[in-house]
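4.2 Preliminary Data

To establish feasibility before requesting continued support, the project team ran the inverse folding procedure on a target of 678 residues. The structure was first converted into the token representation described in Section 3, and no sequence information of any kind was made available to the design step. The complete token record follows.
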């Protein structure tokens, strides 16, 4: 069996065309442009013109300058511009203001904040839409796109001065030169911070990448104005993250305009008074001052690379930080959007150089110089695969390449904690098993997260599972299902459950999200857990030779407890049915637990009855059971486990009704569960 895969990726290039005086050249047509990719001419497939200059001129004629622009969006949303129609961004200048608090000391942040407030008060036009994002401990959107001056002003003033500013004081990432310009601490032990600073730099680059991806769903060009106090990298260690950041910005059609909030830097020889002098002869030979300037240049070089490779601009060595907004305005007054389908169909992840030509003499072109081609999953490195998983589990965009079902149940562990067994099921026919010797092999990655308030991860699980099937097992599995079982220990409350599945041969991804309301079983004198239905039991200590975990992700949070598995009864583990679809040849296993507030000196006296309903009528009633003993080691829990052969059940939909009667308090409790016989 052969599979033909055809990929077509539209490459978008934004081009600013100006004459020798810097004025935009208008009224150009596709025939006026020529695009080359790696020196191979490409055919222009799409062409559009964005002209904000004309609209702004019209706005000036109808709107007094003192009148504040009307609001486009006035409340932040979970995702950027969620729910807004696409036309809301037509002929708008989309500016994303990014304040990296982790790379600016307090004095630089104050200057950046003052610059932004001046822009909002004096330069914001009706064509502008501004979004505000900060990076402290995490990347957070403070305000979605709007041009409401008062809302924007309040948002900027709400930024906490000094938050994460200590990370801006991280030392150099190059251990070969930092000793000549560092404070003399020879009398004390100082650990080598190089590796930490490399990690810190990766985090700052990753934050820029995250901001770009936040706005990927908006097709228009975005201008990311990034305020920082420089960003130093090494020659090798940060290159992977730097490349990923540039690639993410280009794919999201985001141009980076970087501003060094330090302004015009005058470095005193030997350093300023914020730290002690360096040791050795560097201060007398001139090496110290050279290293100071080299460090400043290094911190600006990375930002310059980010700006130029994304079609933006870097603003350095000036105390007029507001120049960045003038640069954005000039580059966005009038520009052309060209698109082409690359003639190079290889998905090799390599950098491809773009050259754009226009047949206008002495015209100046500004555009991004290239992009990284997409990679096929087969060419992913280990770090690429980890990055894909991280992005997929954190993005709000759903994936559905492998349809699967998820079922969650609720059982009480103690007075404050519930156990939530979760089962995930998908069809084996959707999985491309690979022949490895005499066995068919497939490998899966599973990530499950339980999110609490403000999308904070309160519990998580991560597994890589490899399945090896011999010929007979593979034939039986071909038309069946694959089920993954796990569980979480949670306190009562409301959560969101998110699961990610990836098949590791083709890289297919699927995600699933649902609200999770964990009940408080202690609120009632008589409570009943979820009714778990199953047609499958497994010995509690058995391990299938065909299934094994791969990799070491550390101890999962739900495995860190010493509690016994509530689903194990009489040395057998009940495997919950996800779809609750059975056949007459099955035996239906019914499992639930009863929780009762204990009364001192009194044994439980509970009657449990099972009734099967079909089409609203009683189909079958099971004999009543008298429950007079708590579980071993418990004084408030009774576990019930029933078996019902389904041979006498015809095809159709059924309802199982469980009725409990507490003969001591004369209280009744009824709970129902649906299932299907096919």
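Position-by-position output of the design step:
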């Amino acid at each position: 069996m052969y599979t033909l895969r055809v990929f077509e990726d539209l490459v978008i290039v934004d081009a600013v065309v100006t004459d020798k005086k810097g004025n935009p050249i208008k009224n150009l047509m596709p025939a006026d442009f020529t695009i080359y990719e790696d020196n191979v001419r490409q055919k222009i497939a799409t062409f559009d013109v964005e002209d904000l200059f004309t609209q702004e001129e019209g706005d000036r004629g109808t709107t007094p300058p003192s009148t504040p622009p009307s609001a486009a969006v006035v409340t932040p949303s979970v995702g950027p511009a969620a729910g807004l129609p696409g036309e809301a961004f037509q002929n708008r200048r989309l500016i994303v203001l990014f304040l990296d608090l982790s790379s600016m000391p307090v004095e630089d942040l104050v200057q950046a904040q003052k610059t932004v407030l001046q822009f909002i008060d004096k330069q914001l036009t009706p064509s502008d839409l501004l979004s505000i994002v900060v990076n402290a401990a995490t990347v957070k959107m403070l305000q979605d796109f709007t041009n409401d001056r008062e809302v924007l002003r309040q948002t900027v003033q709400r930024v906490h001065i000094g938050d994460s500013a200590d990370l801006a004081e991280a030392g150099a990432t190059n251990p070969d030169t930092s000793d000549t310009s560092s404070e003399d601490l020879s009398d004390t032990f100082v650990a080598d911070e190089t590796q930490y600073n490399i990690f810190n730099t990766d985090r700052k680059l990753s934050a820029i990448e995250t901001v770009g991806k936040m706005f990927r769903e908006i097709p228009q060009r975005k201008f990311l104005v990034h305020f920082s106090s420089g960003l130093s990298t090494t020659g090798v260690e940060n290159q992977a993250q730097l490349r990923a950041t540039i690639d993410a910005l280009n794919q999201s059609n985001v141009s980076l305009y970087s501003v060094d909030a330090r302004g015009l830097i005058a470095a005193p020889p030997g350093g300023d008074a914020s730290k002690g002098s360096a040791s050795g002869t560097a201060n007398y030979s001139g090496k110290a001052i050279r290293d100071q300037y080299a460090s400043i240049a290094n911190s600006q070089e990375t930002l310059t690379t980010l700006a130029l490779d994304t079609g933006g601009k870097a603003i350095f060595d000036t105390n007029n930080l507001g120049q960045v907004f003038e640069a954005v305005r000039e580059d966005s007054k009038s520009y052309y959007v060209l698109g082409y389908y690359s003639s190079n169909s290889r998905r090799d992840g390599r950098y491809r150089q773009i050259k754009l030509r226009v047949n206008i003499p002495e015209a100046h072109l500004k555009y991004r110089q290239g992009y990284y081609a997409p990679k096929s999953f087969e060419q992913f490195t280990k770090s690429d695969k980890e990055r894909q998983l991280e992005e997929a589990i954190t993005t709000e965009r759903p994936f559905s390449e492998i349809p699967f079902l998820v079922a969650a149940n609720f059982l009480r562990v103690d007075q404050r904690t519930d156990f939530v067994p979760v089962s995930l099921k998908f069809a084996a026919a959707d999985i491309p098993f690979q022949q490895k010797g005499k066995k068919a092999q497939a490998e899966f990655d599973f990530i499950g997260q339980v999110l609490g308030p403000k999308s904070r991860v309160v519990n998580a699980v991560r597994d890589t599972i490899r399945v090896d099937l011999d010929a007979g097992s593979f034939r039986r599995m071909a038309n069946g299902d694959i089920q993954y079982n796990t569980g979480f220990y949670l306190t009562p409350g409301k959560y969101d459950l998110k699961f990610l599945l990836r098949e590791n041969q083709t890289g297919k991804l699927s995600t699933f999200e649902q609200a999770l309301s964990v009940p408080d079983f202690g609120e009632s004198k008589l409570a009943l857990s979820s009714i778990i239905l199953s047609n499958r039991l497994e010995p509690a200590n058995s391990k299938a030779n065909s299934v094994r975990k791969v990799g070491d992700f550390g101890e999962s949070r739900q495995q860190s407890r010493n509690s016994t598995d509530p689903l194990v009864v009489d040395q057998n583990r009940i495997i919950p049915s996800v779809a609750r679809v059975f056949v007459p040849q099955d035996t239906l296993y019914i499992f639930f637990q009863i929780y009762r507030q204990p009364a001192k000196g009194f044994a439980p006296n509970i009657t449990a009855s099972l009734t099967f309903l079909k089409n609203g009528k009683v189909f079958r009633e099971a004999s009543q059971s008298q429950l007079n003993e708590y579980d071993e080691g418990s004084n408030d829990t009774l576990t019930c486990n029933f078996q019902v052969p389904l041979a006498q059940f015809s095809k159709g939909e059924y309802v199982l009704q469980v009725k409990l009667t507490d003969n001591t308090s004369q209280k009744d409790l009824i709970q129902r569960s649906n299932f299907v016989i096919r």
